[in-house]
Amino acid sequence: xxxxxFLCTANSCxxxxxxxxxxxxxxxxxxxxxxGSNPAKVDPQAIKVLKEIEVDISKHYSKHLNEFLDKEIDxxxxxxxxxxxxxxxxxxxxxxxxxxxxxPPALGLGIEGYRKVRDEIYHFVKTLPELL
Length: 132
Description:
Blueprint: E1 3-8, H1 14-26, E2 31-36, H2 44-51, E3 75-78, H3 81-86, E4 96-98, H4 111-125, H5 128-131
Parallel strand pairs: 1-2, 1-3, 3-4
């Protein structure tokens, strides 16, 4: 089974949303993970906007990317520019790509910023089979 890892700095919002959405879309077709270089608590607004599309990440927790360094990963996707710069090489990854998404709180749009980024991530995640 192919393994996909979404990386972001805090593993609190964008990478968590990507993991949750990918699991919802693909079910058990792939092993899907997310992690960060500096993990923090999962963002409650991310949980809220995913719940709106029937994706539940309320039990997710932030993980450090070191947990995945010894695993063979088919596709590593950095979803923020900081992660791209701090993790340009990921040992054991067959393919590493960058697809940056804006940080929802930085947009200054409140919950609408989270919805905007959620929808962008959703459309990107649907293209994953083409990238593998």
